[in-house]
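Subject: Re: docking follow-up (flavin-adenine dinucleotide)

Dear J.,

Thanks for your patience while I sorted out the input files. As discussed at Tuesday's group meeting, I've set up the holo structure prediction with flavin-adenine dinucleotide included as the bound ligand rather than trying to dock it afterwards. The sequence and the ligand SMILES I used are pasted below, so you can double-check that they match what you have on your end before we go further.
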Amino acid sequence: MSTYRVNLKDMQFVLFDVLKADTQFAALGLADANRELISAVLEESARFCETQLAPLNAVGDREGCTFVAETNDVRTPAGFKQAYDQYVDMGWPSLVSPPEYGGQGLPETVGIAVKEMINASNLAWGNFPLLSHGATNAIEHHGSDWQKQVVLPHLINGSWTGTMCLTEPQCGTDLGLIKTRAVPNADGTYAITGTKIFITAGEHDLAENIIHLVLAKLPDAPEGSKGISLFLVPKFNIDAEGQLVDRNHVKCGSIEHKMGIHGSATCVMNFDDAKGYLVGQANKGLMAMFTMMNSARLGVGLQGLGLSDRATQNALRYARERLQMRAANQPARPDKPADPIIVHPDVRRMLLTNKALVEGGRMLLYSAGLHADSSSYSKDAAAAATDNAVVGYLTPIAKACMTEWSIECTYNAMQCLGGHGYIAEHGLEQLARDARITTLYEGTTGIQALDLLGRKVLQLKGEGMQAFGAQLLQLVTDCMAVPQLASHAQELGKAAQELQELTLRIAQAVQKDGNEVGAAAYDYLMYSGYVVLGYWWLRAAKTVLDGGITADAEFSAAKLETADFYFARLFPRTRTHAAAIRSGAAPLMTMPESHFDA
Ligand SMILES: Cc1cc2nc3c(=O)[nH]c(=O)nc-3n(C[C@H](O)[C@H](O)[C@H](O)COP(=O)(O)OP(=O)(O)OC[C@H]3O[C@@H](n4cnc5c(N)ncnc54)[C@H](O)[C@@H]3O)c2cc1C
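The structure tokens for the complex came back this morning:
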């Protein structure tokens, strides 16, 4: 079985030393979110996650969820309900939610650190509360007064959970193909009919009620994605005061049997004239749903981070204990029959790759949270808008790169264990199976890449990218004057410049061939990910060299060594991505379809 310990030391380094989050919170008027309080929250969360959630990770995988066909119910694995009750009793669901609806109003960045712990402890369990947070955001920003006053407090205190119902059998990425219908009722509600598939936490036994946020089309809706509306459909109907009345006409038809996250219920949901309430404006549902999806996308990035950290911790422990072969130069443990495998360069390659991606990814995700907080709480409207654009730019990178890296990290970790990594007992293969979904749901990597290049960079003229780029150039300039960092700064500066040139090149090429954006998108996304991570590793190294960090000397030295490793061994991956982008659409599009199996 794999184990997990929360890396509080690194979380505190990122939050307080690198990001100076407490100082930034004070400047945003969130003075209560001081270092002492945040540290106490993180410690308490670590205790809950390590003792309650982590031990259930293997149980959830082994048992999975059970569908009870007679009653259309879903039973979660043993222990999940007790853990959820504790989670609610301890007030975790309301941590970052708005106080006017019963939330504790802590910054999103703190919630992000807590979510990382939950995901690393038990990703499948974490999927049940995950979408409640997104649903809360969508209702808070787009819901009616009744939805805010009556529904929100229940989602926020965790007595009800939320879902996100987009996918249908014929409609995955292309939401314009939605068939679910919403017909107005005389009382101002709507009758929702249709089938949604793959709905995470669509049915379960953890909470009293489930609030489905459902995309559907009104009878007179325009064709395609312009005609989609968002509806709130409760499992149990609710009266004006929020009391549960009777069962609504929405039922789970079955659950999926899948490669991983067995403890997470993935449901077929049948809506049969179910009573629903419009959220936001008619035909503007996608906009409202995007509020939810952006929050969920960062949440899935955190799933990648959590799994990668847990896998790496287990691989490291094994690599220190497992004795095989001798070190190349001289025995490291002459008293033993062989040396621990951590002496071998190839094992160190895998462990260091994971360390650099996990700790770098943590800086990337927490910084996205901080930009989100600045955008929510800043009194300066222009600064808030810029922060919002930066979050928009970083979200597809954080989601897609961190999840792609989670596949690399969990596979690296398995590889470190040799054949034992493939054996269920060690738990590494579960992490690799669980990681596989993260590049698929909440928009595949290919779709995140199109969102980044097609929408955020080309269509929206790269406002977020430019703001981040200005920050990057400043850091590069500062670090050029630091001998130990000058060569890293130079490499990062060159890459940032190249990324700009490539952006222009794609913008010109697409004028002649519409495929040029799609052909470049994946490599552009990954290139951007390595540049953003390069920025954070340079910032981490500079933070250490500037002094004043709270952790010990060994920790500081490890940061500098990992930054050196990152620039020597991972950052050069940008060159392969640049070459692929330069090759344009032709190598992908020249071959006629009939030649694929010629
Ligand atoms: C375990 C699990 C949980 C899920 N939870 C939810 C949930 O809670 N709510 C919900 O609504 N959905 C959920 N989903 C659905 C998930 O979000 C979709 O599976 C995903 O968005 C992809 O849609 P699809 O499977 O139909 O693939 P398709 O859209 O058919 O895509 C297939 C492939 O084609 C690629 N592709 C498609 N169009 C393009 C394009 N224009 N350019 C480039 N590539 C393209 C995709 O990237 C992908 O690789 C879940 C799925 C799973 C497996």
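A couple of observations from a first look. Residues 213 and 232 are 5 Å apart (CA to CA). The pocket of flavin-adenine dinucleotide is lined by residues 164-167, 172-173, 198-200, 258, 266, 437, 440-444, 446-447, 450, 518 (CB under 6 Å).

Let me know if you'd like me to rerun anything.

Best regards,
T.
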